[in-house]
Design a protein that fits this description.
- The complex is a heterodimer of chains A (469) and B (136).
- With 469 residues, chain A is an alpha/beta fold.
- In chain A, 39% of the residues lie in helices and 22% in strands.
- Chain A contains 17 helices and 19 strands.
- In chain A, α4 runs parallel beside α5 and α10 packs across α11.
- Chain B has 136 residues and is an alpha/beta fold.
- Chain B is globular, with a radius of gyration of 13 Å.
- The N and C termini of chain B lie close together (9 Å).
- The mean pLDDT of chain B is 94.
- The chains are: A alpha/beta (469), B alpha/beta (136).
- Chains A and B meet through α2 and β15 of A and α2 of B.
Amino acid sequence: MRYLAVDFGSTFTKVTAIDSTEARILGTANAFTTITTDVMEGFTNALNELHAHIGEFRYEKLLCCSSAAGGLAMVAVGLVPDLTAKAARMAAEGAGAKVIKTFAYELSAEEQQEIYDINPDIVLLCGGTDGGNQEVITANAKLLAEIDRNFSIIVAGNKSAVRDMEASLQASGKRYVITKNVMPTFGKLDIEPAQTCIRDIFIERIIDAKGLSKVQEMTEFPIIPTPLAVLKGCELLSTGTKTSPGIGDFMAVDMGGATTDVYSMAKGSPTRDNVLLKGLPEPYAKRTVEGDLGMRYSLRFLMEAVGVENVAETAGVAPEAVAAWVAKCTANPETIAPENSEERRIDEALAHWGIAESVRRHCGTMETAFTPMGEVYVLAGKDMSATTAVVGVGGVLKNSSNPAAILAGAAATPRTMAMGSMLPESPQYMLDKRYIFSAMGLLSQADPETALTIMKQEISSLSEAPHGN
Amino acid sequence: MSKKTLVTGVIGADVHAVGNRILALSLEEAGYNVVNLGVMVSQEEFVNAAVETKADAIVVSSLYGHGEIDCQGLREKCDEAGLKGIFLLAGGNLVVGKQDFTEVEKRYKAMGFDRAYPPGTTLETTISELRSLLGA
């Protein structure tokens, strides 16, 4: 069987030609995404490019994912920040959405305005355990209904509050669905029903809104958000199929111009004794998105978050040189650093530290508590210290001469250990050079066995990276 | 009438797990919806759990003698979080050494607790007092 996997990205439309009988990738190509006119143009250009590389290619099945036109922009709303608000965010990120902001408690007038300005595709509204707090979610339903934007609302909160919410939701004229609570009882998560709703709305409404209906008509498979395809690819590579084993625990980092996505495939159970678990349980296949850590559009925020001195030291330049480069890239996001230049060193140091920061936010923390009974460790989030592999996906890493050095940002250092961050302690670095994760995630819907075989071949190990920040 | 919800847990840096577990099971058996937060629970965790579950009472255990320090400010945090009039109960080994419990109780009530129980209080006592406080 011959498959064509297409990823309609914000900048590039990438096509991957796959032959499943030989279990190999015949070729990849890309062209600029043409969302403002007709996406089919970019698609045809990419296909022509592919033909130029590998000759005439006729596919039998087409598989598509998209993050074009801003991707799937969402807002998550919950009650307590560490509880239902966090659960809402986790559910949305796991469904491939870009969560622009998470809100907790009753929304203020400013926050209503903020949501208006964000203009999300979907708002996920949570709050209260079943039978728990009703007031806040009911009030928030009403406040969301007042916002004069055409977003869809998914209600996944206290079931006892639904009756009171329906009137205001109906009156709003917005599309809304009601599903199971993300946290039905305290501390227990049930995020899949909310994620199914996100997927359904993406298929029903967003695809059309982003000008992808023509593409959808060409394929029997639903178009899914690109990050969800990557997540599916990662999960398959980690856990394997019914007949073939996967590679086990690993992390993956996808650093783009505006955001950095971090994926972890692991239970994240504590690696030492005497550990007390705190906080919400986290999914085996977890994705987080850092909207302030990207290599171009958000480079300024990245520099602020990681500290200009750190970047300067890693690049071996003066802090002023880093600041100048960041200013240049911010003014002109198309800027590319020439090979073997000082700028390239700065860019790679920024990527290294951006990865360090995004992975730190993704992983759990272990704190030591001193009790009259002795020392006790308290773990919140995933303990990734024993994870043996970190995979770099596309982007900056693909074009670097030393991707392992950039990826080394994901590893634990004496400082992160002292801060209690549970980062991988001595991982092996791997690279998804041809950006096949999303294509293989798509293929996993039709032929997981082939997708796994190809990933095992394609995701290559990098030579040892120099350690230490 | 739906079940009343209680949040239980051992406050502070206290890791005594057994008594709290027995308490939680007994309260469940008595017909309450129990959200047991386990050991080493901070005031914030008690408050957050009570907010999400709209709890009727927080039942705090403390076994290691530092309870009084750990419990200070819990009522104020509840007020701050909008948990108006939520019942606060504490029990276990609330203070160090042998102290006159009427004094201890007075201090706990001054901190905003509705009930404070001395060591050796039976489960039946707690449950029957909860019934009269919550009306169920």
